[in-house]
Amino acid sequence: MQTDFLVIGSGIAGLTYALKVAQDCPDRKITVLTKTQSDETNTKYAQGGIAGVMDFDQDSFSKHIEDTLIAGDGLCNPHIVEIVVKEGVQRINELIEWGAQFDREPDGDYKLGKEGGHSESRILHHKDVTGKEMERALLEAIKKCTNIELISHCFVLDIITQHHLGFLVTKSTPDIECYGVYVLNQATNQIEKIVARITMLAAGGNGQVYRSTTNPEIATGDGVAMIYRAKGRIENMEFIQFHPTALYEAGVRGQSFLITEAVRGDGGILRNQAGEAFMERYDSRKDLAPRDIVARAIDSEMKIHGTENVFLDCRHMDQAKFMEHFPNIYEKCLSVGIDVAKDMIPVSPAAHYSCGGVKTDEWARTSIKNLFAAGECASTGLHGANRLASNSLLEAMVFAHRAYKQSLLEINIPLLVKSSEIPDWNAAGTMAPKEMILITQSLKEMKLLMSDYVGIVRNNERLYRANRRLDLLHEETETLYEKTEVSPQLCQLRNMITVAYLIVKSAELRRESRGLHFNTDFPERSPILQNTIL
Ligand code: FAD
Ligand code: SIN
Predict the structure, then answer these.
(1) What pLDDT, on a 0 to 100 scale, did the predictor assign at position 418?
(2) Ligand 1 center to residue 10 CA distance, Å?
(3) Quick one: DSSP state of residue 71?
């Protein structure tokens, strides 16, 4: 298949980019790929909302910029922060024009929520299902564009570069070029090549590397892993954000249900086993301190009390308002026997967001030619060492827009190679998998070691051990990969082991504690501000 614009991912970043390109270039072909159903994305699960300066009487760009810089703990790129905050408002308005609805006050003004680290109320939301509403609006708008083809259940295996034409490509190759991708099309069970003039990587996050995560099963870091294999630049992978309040359900594995930070914004209070509102002992901003601080405080309380969770107390809140703002959370809690008017909600931290990723510049260009990246898989410089709540949906839209602008300047460059020069996928020597246990057991081991050794609090010994164990898992998985027919399960395991390695390696290189990375052997901040680039 040949296309003009190839988009990997159907979340907010991929769909925003596809829509903009399609509307501007009606004669061009746009192909969007997604590995399961079109709406199964991190985007769909976003609860709290999208941050943006909407009330200029109370709020200002400089306050939002300042909050983002404070959360980022010295590592944000101030130029990028300014771009996102200032351009973000236009992007939110476009989303509204495409049909997304945000909650309003009776007088018509937007209801603005507050979350940790924000000095003002500036979060637009659609009850507690903001992401679902955004994804709905974007997918509906996409359907109206006849030049967009959205292919679901199509798993991207690797991007195609000179390496596949037989040239040696290393980290120091100056002009690595992207010609498209190899995919496993699950409708045909065939491996196909898709050649593209421009490729946009919008493949989302990697929460599934950990045992407990708010991310759905699709969040396996495929985008970062494939760019690392293609020798592209990866940045700041040690900064994994743990959301402080995922619903704690004993024995439940897989995706944890999120209790949005907006609940604390509306007055919810964290309490330990003894019923104490402990956050005041950790930070003057109490329950609304930035996420790294709250997650570490919870971790510490759980260790002191020897428990698997703390509690979020909403019993004192106006229950009618709670049900109006958080109907999804209310229902979920009821379904597991928790009445928020009478019971405290058991919560514990869970892997939530990857601040690092594929390194991009201010136009969303990666280190590989013809390849853009936006959304959670990208490292733009906005988040630094810790993302401010509700800034990621905003960032995804701003850089999808910037990638679109830059793509228009590059689309007329002739294709760098003829499609016929690109070889088909080489499956020689591979056989049908003999037993799934080889994949599922390695997956369990990886998740466990990442959660136990590379979680909220790290130290040198834990990182060293994690590295050694990952080495073995890597070796065994590569051997399996070489002799087995590819499947999404096997490729995802391979990608997650790569991402886990990148997190551990970056964590080892950062010999300080900053933002989300806390190493008890290096508890202080270093005076040198540095990104970790692999
Ligand atoms: P995603 O929306 O995750 O989309 C990724 C896409 O890539 C999917 O279509 C997937 O199928 C595709 N893909 C991945 N790998 C492959 C492959 N190998 N082949 C083919 N396709 C592939 N942020 C906020 O700003 N505000 C919030 O309130 C908020 N709440 C959140 C709540 C939860 C529970 C979670 C999990 C996240 C939340 N976030 C929030 C973060 C935010 O939702 C994500 O960072 C953002 O939606 C990511 O968008 P994206 O387009 O980059 O990726
Ligand atoms: C939440 O609603 O608490 C999540 C917000 C975010 O991850 O930005």
Answers:
(1) 85
(2) 9
(3) H
